[in-house]
Predict the structure.
Amino acid sequence: MIIKSIYLENFRNYKAQEIKLDENINVFYGNNAQGKTNILEALYFCAFGRSFRTHKDAELISFDSDLSKVVVDFNKAEREKKIEIVLSKKTKKQIKLNGIKINKNSELLGNMNLVIFSPDDIIILKESPASRRKFLDILISQLRPNYAYMLSEYNKVLENRNAMLKSQRLDGIEIWNEQLASYAEKICGYRKEYIEKISQNIKKITPNLTNDKEMLTIKYKTQFNVKSEFIAHLNKNLKIDLIRGFTSVGIHRDDFELLVNDRELNLYGSQGQHRTAILALKFAEMEIIKEEVGEKPILLLDDITSELDLERIKLIFDKISGYQVLITCTDANIIRNFESLTKNTKLYRIVEGSLED
């Protein structure tokens, strides 16, 4: 898979800019707040229908404009493809895939496979389970589009059940329990499948990251395994749910944990071990996508030099050979420190939302 070009119009601080990409390594450099990360955000937006920086699409539109457009031309499986998204402050966003209008973000999933590395990745491990579920859900959704649909339907049923709990009217709650459990069983099955795939990959990856000194393992945490167990949990917790006004058990509370040499990373891990664990997760994500899609995903490396030490940066740069990569940084001289970046690299200087290559 190769991205050929990106066109931005009134997107963040870009007025009208086309960027033609090299099929190898593309380095976007310049001072802070010039718009480097906006390019990566635009690509991510076209792959998933949403930003990795904000939940509000309107924030992506330039301050002095009502409309914004992003167009990405790319090749996948030796076929030319195009994704176009038009945003408006007044109407619903419009998405076209190969010129055909689509109505849901889920229909975008799997068309353009991305893996992003950013300074905020450490949040995946250090903050709430929601961050870890999001990481897992994004990975699975790229590879199993039906998963995103089931997750959406589960959340709709969950909202309806919560509304019933708040109203204290329980007529027909068995129907919502049945539907919730049906979707939960399938979603949980997908998550366990991909946790196992991640586990297999990080067992191969970790020794190289730690000089054989540490072993990283991953464990999925859920309250049930099959539909009947979930229904039993829902019935058992009904009184508590009525008091709280929301559903207190379910796959919307599932989590995964990482262990270093059988010790919980969140409790006992150092900052360095957290960073190594993130690299292992991201490398596993790359490998899983490559194995299942049959093509390497596009890699987006956002300002990783600000958070990672040179040793870990070198591990990343040694791993990206053969991938199409977009890197943002403040100093283009960084590539001189790494032999793997000195060839097949194209530089772009970004100044106030404009490209100087």
Notes: The chain has ten helices and 15 strands. The chain has a mean pLDDT of 92. Residues 26 and 346 are 5 Å apart (CA to CA).
